[in-house]
Inverse folding.
């Protein structure tokens, strides 16, 4: 018995070391130069924690542990090797896996009852399992939308919020009933199912452009469900890891919401794409000026400062490598090229940075919105590739616009604006962009990848 | 209220503050790797899953535990792999390209 207790202490000590390494891991992520050491610190911490758990005397049925570990690694490695454009859906899927395992352990803990659970424990388990379950299905829906298995547009119907909230109330009601009388074990699986349904209802109405916020919010839920599991199992290592993950997701959600000038409730229950009818009222024929790749190349070559504004359209067209060629070609001509990154550009926080880094563009060329906005008046050319709403000056000027108040990249203040776009059709949210009708805006119609490629060729031809 | 709950609450609140202060300092440049790294760290629930599955109490708890082991371990492995892959791509302009 004493040996066992001693072993328990070793276990706790190893967990403390793991927790310290986890915090260190996130701290090292503060700069790109030290970030990879952060991954190493995290890996050592995780390996240590898993290692000591495997030799825990409580673990006897190794078959039930080692086979799932092998399966997990077999699934995890390919999911770690996905293409960079698939990172948002991979992330959503990993939120789903994390929530699934938290929910499964909570459910197992409920049925493991060697001693009957107290009301307090029942409350903890019920809350944990509800959050884990709804995050599981919600994340699966988000992953499906990002992978375009499910439609990206918001799916809405009349009375949706009432239905969704009633389902949530149902799950919570069942949880309360279980707390009042924990012996009504039959209610437990029903509660799980209701929570799973709520997760589906929660994410289905949310559109593709809101995915950065949703992914962050689901990240935070997955973290908090792990922390709650730590409460249930009285495991401090889970409490800490869950709190770190939960607060990270929460901070990112707040940043995303601020970048869209919207509240959580508005993202979750607002169904963005649906409210634009008023804005579409005044429709007049306005002229746009378009230009060819040759003209665009001429203007770019004559510039001294160029800012490229990438958006989701660049990711869809897989244009980042062509953009990199453009960057090289202009830099060689002595043009200063930088990239302006809006926080919600793309489908998850930081999405554009990863894509551009993948294309080998140095990260000191990637500039945040706050830092670049003051510089547009001194910029010769702002080249917008596949971004729309984040450049819409109506957000600054038109109080009637649905995106009024949203912080945008002030590309309209550049001397010349060039926008690569397939056609004049409005963006995801269906909001017309006055940027396109400005006197100093040139529309470059075409596929982002092909058009950038043509500009690069023209630049090369001009030289040779 | 159980004593364990109170001590866990202390840990939770302190860890939340630590997380908030550290993560606030992470450059927006690295928000995608941040999410995949916290995901990998959060997969530490695998230790609880290992105990549930390995204890082999009932068939049901063992199967649930085994599913949880596979799900969370795939997050742990995949999360570290992709985070490192992403971070390897972030190069400063000054560094020599290979």
């Amino acid at each position: 018995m004493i040996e066992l207790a001693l072993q328990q202490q070793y276990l706790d000590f190893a967990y403390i070391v793991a927790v310290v390494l986890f915090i260190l891991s996130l701290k090292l992520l503060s700069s790109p130069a030290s970030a990879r050491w952060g991954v190493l610190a995290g890996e050592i911490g995780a390996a240590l924690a898993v290692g000591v758990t495997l030799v825990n005397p409580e673990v006897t049925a190794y078959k039930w542990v080692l086979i799932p570990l092998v399966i997990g690694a077999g699934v995890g490695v390919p999911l770690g090797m996905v293409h960079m454009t698939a990172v948002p859906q991979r992330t959503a899927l990993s939120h789903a896996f994390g929530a699934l395992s938290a929910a499964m352990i909570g459910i197992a803990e409920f049925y493991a009852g060697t001693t009957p659970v107290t009301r307090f424990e029942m409350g903890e388990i019920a809350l944990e399992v509800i959050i884990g379950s709804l995050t599981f299905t919600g994340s699966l829906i988000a992953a499906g939308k990002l992978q375009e298995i499910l439609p990206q547009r918001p799916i809405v119907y009349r009375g949706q919020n009432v239905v969704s909230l009633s389902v949530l109330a149902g799950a919570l009601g069942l949880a309360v009933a279980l707390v009042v009388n924990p012996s009504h074990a039959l209610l437990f699986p029903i509660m799980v199912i209701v929570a799973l349904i709520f997760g589906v209802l929660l994410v289905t109405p949310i559109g593709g452009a809101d995915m950065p916020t949703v992914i962050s919010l689901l990240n935070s839920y997955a973290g908090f469900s792990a922390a709650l599991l730590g409460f249930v199992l009285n495991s401090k290592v889970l409490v800490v890891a869950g709190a770190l993950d939960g607060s990270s997701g929460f901070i990112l959600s707040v940043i995303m919401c601020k970048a869209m000038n919207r509240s959580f409730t508005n993202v979750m229950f607002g169904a963005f794409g649906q409210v634009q009818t008023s804005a579409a009222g005044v429709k007049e024929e306005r002229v746009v000026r378009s230009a060819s790749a040759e003209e665009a190349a001429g203007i770019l070559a004559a510039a001294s400062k160029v800012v490229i504004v990438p958006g989701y359209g660049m990711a869809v067209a897989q244009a980042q490598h062509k953009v990199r060629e453009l960057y090289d070609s202009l830099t060689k001509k002595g043009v200063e090229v930088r990239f302006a990154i809006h926080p919600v550009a793309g489908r998850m926080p930081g999405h554009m940075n990863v894509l551009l880094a993948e294309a080998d563009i140095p990260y000191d060329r990637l500039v945040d919105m706050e830092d670049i906005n003051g510089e547009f008046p001194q910029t010769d050319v702002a080249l917008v590739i596949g971004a729309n709403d984040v450049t819409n000056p109506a957000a600054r000027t038109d109080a009637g616009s649905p995106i009024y108040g949203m912080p945008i990249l002030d590309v309209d203040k550049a001397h010349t604006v060039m926008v690569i776009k397939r056609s004049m059709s409005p963006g995801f949210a269906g909001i017309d962009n006055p940027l396109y009708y400005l006197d100093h805006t040139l529309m470059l119609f075409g596929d982002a990848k092909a058009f950038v490629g043509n500009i690069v060729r023209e630049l090369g031809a001009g030289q040779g | 209220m159980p004593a364990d709950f109170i001590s866990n609450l202390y840990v939770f609140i302190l860890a939340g503050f630590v997380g908030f202060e550290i993560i606030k300092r992470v450059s927006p440049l690295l928000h995608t790797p941040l999410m995949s790294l916290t995901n990998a760290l959060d997969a530490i629930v695998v230790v609880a899953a290992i105990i549930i599955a390995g204890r082999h109490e009932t068939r049901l708890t063992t199967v649930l535990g085994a599913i949880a082991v596979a799900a969370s371990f795939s997050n742990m492995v995949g999360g570290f792999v992709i985070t490192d892959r992403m971070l390897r791509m972030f190069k400063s302009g000054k560094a020599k390209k290979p």
